């Protein structure tokens, strides 16, 4: 796990950044695919992030660019797309696709929702040259 420091009240507080660990894995996947294809570089990496994946998109993109330095993906364009979660309202029974949090039932406004799906993070495609 990677750690970053941040100043708070004159002291440095360390906290783990799991996006950096995820980014390192993404770059490794892209490099492996490029090498298998005999490519010289990775030009694009597109990721799908589920709504409930607990991944901060901007942080992940920054970490991908950081992890890609000195690799075949050094100049790659890293892109993300959010995938929805599914929900069923415990009050009115409505089934819905959720695209944002916090979530409410689109029919009755209740927050009494059973959620599923939307937890994935995967490489959708890789551009190479």
Give a verbal description of the structure.
By secondary structure, this protein is an alpha+beta fold. The chain has helices at residues 18-36, 57-68, and strands at 3-8, 11-16, 42-50, 77-83, 85-89, 95-98, 113-116, 121-128. The two termini are 31 Å apart. The mean pLDDT is 90. One of its GO terms (molecular function) is nickel cation binding.
Short synopsis of the structure:
By secondary structure, the chain is α+β, with helices and mostly antiparallel strands. The protein contains 2 helices and 8 strands, in the order E-E-H-E-H-E-E-E-E-E.
Give the termini separation.
31 Å
Mean residue pLDDT? 90
Category by helix and strand content: alpha+beta
User: How does the major sheet shape up?
Assistant: 3 strands, mixed
Number of strands: 8
Helix content: 10-25%
Number of contiguous helices: 2
Radius of gyration (CA) equals 18 Å
| Shape label | elongated
Keywords: Metal-binding, Nickel, Zinc
GO molecular function, one term: nickel cation binding
Binding site for Zn(2+): 89, 92, 105, 108
Pfam families: HypA
How is the secondary structure organized here?
Blueprint: E1 3-8, E2 11-16, H1 18-36, E3 42-50, H2 57-68, E4 77-83, E5 85-89, E6 95-98, E7 113-116, E8 121-128
Parallel strand pairs: 3-4
Antiparallel strand pairs: 1-2, 3-8, 5-6, 5-7
Helix pairs in contact: 1-2
Family: Belongs to the HypA/HybF family.
Protein name: Hydrogenase maturation factor HypA
Binding site for Zn(2+): 89, 92, 105, 108
């Amino acid at each position: 796990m990677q750690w970053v420091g941040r100043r708070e009240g004159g002291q440095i507080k360390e906290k783990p950044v799991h996006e950096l660990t995820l980014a390192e894995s993404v770059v490794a996947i892209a490099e492996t695919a490029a090498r298998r294809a005999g490519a010289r570089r990775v030009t694009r990496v597109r990721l799908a992030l589920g709504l409930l994946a607990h991944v901060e998109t901007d942080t992940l993109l920054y970490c991908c660019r950081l992890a890609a330095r000195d690799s075949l993906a050094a100049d790659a364009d890293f892109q993300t797309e959010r995938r929805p979660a599914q929900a069923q309202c415990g009050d009115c029974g409505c089934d819905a696709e959720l695209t944002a949090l916090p979530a409410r039932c689109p029919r009755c406004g209740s927050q009494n929702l059973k959620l599923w799906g939307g937890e994935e993070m995967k490489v959708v495609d890789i551009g190479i040259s």
